[in-house]
Amino acid sequence: MSGSTQAVALRLEFPGFRSTEPWNLYVSTSVENLLAGFSCALRPPDDLGFGAFNLVDAEVDPAIVDIQAYIRMRWPYVQNHTVGNQCLLSTEKAQRILAYRPVPNGRYVDEPLVW
Questions:
Q1: Which alpha helices (H) appear in the chain, and where do they start and end?
Q2: What CA–CA distance (Å, rounded) separates 111 from 115?
Q3: Which of 18, 32, 75, 100 is the most buried (most CB within 10 A)?
């Protein structure tokens, strides 16, 4: 690394809200995970020059959708590398590099309060 500038880009999807629709692949980010992710982004590793990270819940609530059934229906001929109800936007890189630890069963903003 030739300079001391660092940059962390967070890819947010439904920050603070619970998605119940397929148009965004049922990706949600609870309030707890949103705060944890931003906290991690403020303390990146010293050797990180730049990194882009998905800041989302690692798992989709099975009461909303069975991700495996959704994948089979939506993309029947595509090889599936997910397990269980794993979110379709991976948090692996954020977990590995930023020490992001998404928690299940978080809280979400009630959408009618916003709109």
A1: 31-41, 67-74, 92-98, 111-114
A2: 6
A3: 100
